[in-house]
Amino acid sequence: MNLTNKVAVVTGASGGIGAPTAHRLAEAGARIIVGYNGKSAEATKIVTALPGTGHRAMRIPMLETNVIREVAATVERDFGRCDVLVNSAGFTRMVPHHDLEALDDDLIDAIFAANVRGPFATIRAFAPLLKKSGDAVIVNISSVAAISGSGSNIAYGGSKAALDTMALSLARVLGPEIRVLTVSPAAVDTAFVPGRTTAMVERVAATTPLKRVVQADEVAQAVMAAITHLTSSTGIVIPVDGGKLVG
Questions:
Q1: CB 38 within 8 Å of CB 63
Q2: What structural domains and CATH numbers belong to the chain?
Q3: How far apart are alpha carbons 200 and 172 in whole angstroms?
Q4: 51-89: per-residue pLDDT in tens?
């Protein structure tokens, strides 16, 4: 998994799945842009802890397209290239699926803006620089909720389904210079979903064939495999779910 001299941008890298993904990429030799929204201190700590040198924390807010474009221009100016883009940033809240009124319009709009518009805006901004690499990879972090209709709320699953479908279209139009893949985990025991406890995640995991909670670093390993090993694949969804979708 040699990514020496490569540059990788990871959004949402100040925690959750993004942080171990940034660490894995850095271990392989890449220089990392640790993207964050509001967690500047956490992002700085992650940069300091990454193997290798040349890493940087940069604010990449999913809802501010102009800032995203400015970040892409800064990466081109200061790093000269971008070979990997991992869209790990996202947003959701716990809303019981039966409580339709609790899933109000503002929350729906916020979820789709962060989970669909934001990744698309990031891809759109970085696509010209990624194409210059000639062998670039985009990995979107989705969720098995896109397929199972489960997850933190109904809109969240819908937003991830949109992300999956968007990746199919992007794989067609961005190839052959850029591959586009999706890594789709089941519930991971992180602080991503406010109000979701470890016990909740464990109950879901107990219903799967492997009967254990998916770890954030296992998702990061799947991201690495998509980048370094699945070199003839694009447009596909890679489940990291303990077998949830089969059982």
A1: no
A2: 7-246 (3.40.50.720)
A3: 38
A4: 999 999 999 999 999 999 999 999 999 999 999 999 999
